[in-house]
Amino acid sequence: MSARLIAFDLDGTLIDSAPDLVEAVNFALTKLNKPTHSQATIQQWIGNGADVLVKRALLNNWHVGEIPDDFEVAFELFKTYYAEHDWVHSRLYDGVLDTLDTLKNADFKLACITNKTARFTNPLMETAGLAPYFDFIASGDTFSEMKPNPLPLLETANLLNVAPENAWMIGDSINDISAGKNAGFKTIAVSYGYAGQHSMADLNADYTVNAMSEIVDLIKK
Question: What is the three-state SS of 136-192?
């Protein structure tokens, strides 16, 4: 195991997907005559999967201690709408394709490890032009656990025949960095994503960057 792996989170790291997620959440809430929320509020709730996102929106609370009333109906409304409107306002962050291209040409193995379910991950990766760059894509339902559990990272490294100490995890949230550290990966936090209620200091990544373009020089060092 001597190859090198770089694993990326998706939402808030490669793609600014919040605008379309916000519209899908508020569509479901509106249909149920529930109060809607601002993008700033909903953006803080992204990162633990779509089901948790919808529960947080129904409860208007980051902490989900119960299954809200109307959750099943709201979740179906959200999924149907988002599947048809996942690339309306979303966009790649600056420098993403150039960075992936450079790393790919430098013989790094690339993986995307997201908590988004495959139903949404795979079409979005294709539409955004990301899929061809990745050797493996792990969605939230690919393995028995999702981030912050390190299992998706460890399984991905194993599948790609890379030792954890030769791997990096790049993400915007505490889930990404915690999973990376617990898997034995080196970690990079991007400051422009959806850290939610956490500061960059809270994430405690090995490195922090303000733009995707900074990653290449950092990793090559």
Answer: EEECCCCCCCCCCCCHHHHHHHHHCCCCHHHEEEEECCHHHHHHHHHHCCEEEEECC
**pLDDT tens across 117-129, in order?**
999 999 999 999 9
Among this protein's residues, is 9 annotated catalytic?
A: yes
What fold, for 5-16+91-220?
Rossmann fold (3.40.50)
Question: Thinking of the domain 18-84, which architecture would CATH place it in?
Answer: Orthogonal Bundle (1.10)
From the candidates 9, 11, 20, 176, which is the catalytic residue?
Answer: 9
Domains in the chain: boundaries? 5-16+91-220, 18-84
pTM of the shown model:
0.93
Cα separation of 145 and 151, whole Å?
6
What pLDDT, in 10s, does the model give residues 132-163?
999 999 999 999 999 999 999 999 999 999 99
